[in-house]
Amino acid sequence: MPAKLFAPSALLPKGWVEDVVLEVDDTGTLTAVTPGGSTKDCEVMGGPVVPGMPNLHSHAFQRAMAGLAESRGDPKDSFWSWRQVMYGFVTHMTPRQVEAIAGQLYVEMLKAGYTAVGEFHYLHHDPKGKKYATPAENAHRVMAAADRAGIGMTLLPVFYAHSDFGGKLATAGQRRFLHDAESFGALLQALAPAFSGRNDRRLGVAPHSLRAVTPEGLNAVRTALDSLDATAPIHIHVAEQTAEVEACLAWSGKRPVAWLLENQPLDPRWCLVHATHMTAEETTGLADSGAVAGLCPTTEANLGDGLFPAITYLEEGGRFGLGSDSHISVSPWEELRWLEYGQRLGHMRRNLLVAANRPNVGAGLFLGALDGGAQALGRPIGRLAVGARADFLVIDPETPTLWGKAGMALLDAMVFAGNENPVRDVMVGGRWVVRERRHEKEEAIFADYKAAMGALMAQM
Question: What predicted TM-score, i.e. pTM, was given to this entire model?
């Protein structure tokens, strides 16, 4: 049903505005945004209103293993040993468990302030690597979880064909992920009808990495997507680890980001996830391309990846968005905080990630992540404007760390002042999914999650 809502203050594209009336049609789209309005005939919201944050990079199933890779079995423990733990964890996971875990995660995302997710989905097959009777079974499961929780989704089915550069054979631990170009094209065709007429969903693709696809495979994936939607998002892991950079140099004579810049038409539909290890030339090239850097600071810290060259990248006008990736944290505020804190630790100075027109660090990072996240997910989100989705957060004015703060200082405090979640209410597509910090289905979804985790942990 159409709705008319009154915000005492709201963060619009032009900045903070008082007394804003938001009108939403029955498709969940904002049809009017009127400053200086009155409360007449409106539902009055109980605090400042900001756009919901897009989460551009998620591996939903990994939420269930958070905390299970924190004992050192190898003196040289690294991303690569973590990956072996992950392979073992997914060995027995069933489609029902995939859906239960994703559902719990998406509830947590919504309560934290994420209103849309880019699901980088590569758990395609059964534990033996065989196709399910419905080849897209697990993809449909994560979409069902998103529907149940009420979060918007850009589904990014992953093309994963090889274990390393040069088309090396995949390992046994990767067998649940694998496709060839033909079967992956068929997967996209089979999924496409699930997105028809759905303005809360978008279909893109994710060639996993330059390790996992050949140049020919990467071109084939892009061609298959273009046959369905030539503007749809393309995401890829790149340059996350120094070992990956070294292997790419040995294979091609080029570093990963440089190889992509020279061999693919990088443009605003692309999202390069991590891009941690870049030269100055790669950093400038990525910024100039208009693509989005998908940054996941808490996961990158957990895995010991390194620090993204954020100062130079933002100075060059680069676009970025946030992802919670492995979900060792599900908080946009913590991701933003650690994006800045990582730079402070590396450079031993403060207040580094600012722009000439955005001197407030927390506010500037929040606004940048909204813009870049919306671009990366390919949906009209991340802003309170006519034609955008009605995805927004009502901030609790009684949060102690926010008391007495307004405007950009309020956003700074949301990022840097403590760990209390400031989000009270969440609307997605014109429908309230969180009211007074409670998700409408959280008890039932948590019960399913507990059952799934009980069964999985019994097999560990």
Answer: 0.97
